[in-house]
Amino acid sequence: MSTEVLEKPELKDADTGPEMFHYVDKTKMTESAILGTLVQALCGEVFPVTKVPKPGAPVCPACKEIYDSFSD
Predict the structure, then answer these.
(1) Taking the CB of residue 16, how many other CB atoms lie within 10 A of it?
(2) Rounded to whole angstroms, how far apart are CA atoms 20 and 66?
(3) What is the chain's pLDDT, residue by residue, as a tens digit (72 residues)?
């Protein structure tokens, strides 16, 4: 067993700008909001859920494009 100290990974908000929201799995979103775990959006961004979008809030264009491709 190693005694090396692992550095804490740097956590950051998604880089899509202020108040830009991503599409994530609903069950993972709830888990993240309660436990602080990280979620991965459809576009690949990884972050903790800290806010709930309001109706009409801007959505990450990459997430929207991927989500819309599922319904075709």
Answers:
(1) 19
(2) 16
(3) 555 655 554 544 445 445 789 999 988 988 998 999 999 999 999 999 988 888 888 999 999 999 999 876
